[in-house]
Design a protein that fits this description.
The protein is 52% helix and 14% strand. α11 runs antiparallel to α12. The radius of gyration is 21 Å and the shape is globular. The relative contact order is 0.10. Bound molecules: S-adenosylmethionine (SAM).
Length: 323
């Protein structure tokens, strides 16, 4: 990586080039009438660091979808983050399964440039090559003072140690996000959020193999039941598992004291994986809600999520003291 002064000079020159390039007409071509959190003429250095702008500051048509997707995600999360900002002078967030750090850097950028609020964001991904790329992007975007990364799986992350290693001091983690973390990594992110007693958990699930696998086994055993037509059809069980899995996750988070909203966060023309589960911790735990979980599991074939047992384990005092 080049010295900071060289990067700062590059950033200044690129920002000037982008301001000239992104006329109102060009901006409207990409954003339509949408009121987006970050515009290409204003956030050009960040967008270049994320690979969403060319060297000449134009946006390749193939990157427009990602640009709109991350904008929408921040737009949807902004009110919940505003809630955190109102309560905490520094907000600490984890981006679980951060991939190439689109959302991670975007939130940090918004905190600095839009919300003028102190933030610390830890991006976590199991892929060390991806994390190396994240660090490179973060330095280029000049956000390395507030965004750090850990190359590890979510279920082995030690958040306390990661914070001490990467940021001066530590403190409570207020929010855990996971945008399209694969399969049960979404459940790992929920577990992490619940263990940390994060006030906000926001997950946009990706593939949903766990339940579909369970139903396939039920079909193989030749079991009969009202849901049998779904168990027997690979396509229908994959599609149905998407919504049943998310419904089960919703109930489990409610039992942990969260108010949960399941919503479409971006139009399905951009991605089919467009459900966001947004959970805000509002109450103490209410295990009586688990009756709804049991009823839904029983009605759909008796296959639950491993998440249920893992959240049950977090209710044990020993799990909390290890954080
Ligand atoms: C589809 S990508 C999404 C990346 C990013 N959140 C985004 O939306 O651009 C999923 C990422 O989750 C990471 N991942 C999957 N399972 C994980 C786990 N158990 N622990 C940590 N990272 C995981 C993968 O390495 C991958 O980078």
């Amino acid at each position: 990586m080049e010295p900071r002064s060289t990067r700062a000079e590059w950033a200044k020159q690129f920002a000037a080039k982008a301001r000239d390039y992104w006329t109102d007409a060009r901006t409207r071509e990409v954003t339509g009438d949408k009121d987006l959190q970050l515009l290409p003429g204003e956030a050009s250095v960040l967008l270049r660091a994320l690979g969403l702008l060319h060297r000449d500051a134009s946006m390749p048509p193939t990157q427009v979808r990602k640009y709109l997707q991350i904008n929408h995600m921040v737009g949807v999360l902004a009110p919940a983050i505003a809630d955190l900002r109102a309560r905490h002078p520094v907000i600490r967030l984890i981006d679980a399964g951060c991939g190439r750090s689109y959302l991670t850097l975007l939130i940090a950028w918004c905190a600095r440039e839009r919300w003028h609020h102190r933030i610390e964001v830890l991006g976590v991904d199991r892929n060390p090559d991806v994390i190396e790329e994240c660090r490179r992007r973060t330095e280029l975007a000049e956000l390395d003072d507030v965004v750090r990364f850990a190359a590890t799986t979510l279920d082995t992350l030690d958040p306390g140690a990661a914070w001490r290693e990467n940021f001066a001091g530590g403190g409570p983690v207020h929010g855990v996000f996971a945008l399209h973390a694969c399969d049960t990594a979404t459940c790992d992110a929920i577990t992490l959020g619940v263990m940390l007693e994060a006030e906000l958990i926001a997950v946009a699930p990706c593939c949903h193999a766990e339940l579909a696998r369970g139903w396939a086994a039920v079909a193989d055993r030749g079991e009969e039941g009202a849901f049998a037509p779904v168990w027997r059809s690979p396509h229908l069980r994959r599609e149905s598992a998407v919504h049943v899995t998310d419904a089960l996750r919703t109930v489990l988070m409610r039992a942990e004291g969260y108010d949960v909203t399941a919503m479409e966060f971006i139009s399905s023309e951009h991605t089919k994986k467009n459900t966001l589960l947004r959970a805000m911790k509002r109450r103490s735990k209410d295990p009586s809600v688990l009756a709804e979980y049991d009823a839904l599991v029983a009605a759909t074939g008796g296959c639950g999520l491993r998440l249920a047992a893992r959240l049950g384990a977090t209710r044990e005092p020993a799990a909390r003291s290890s954080l």
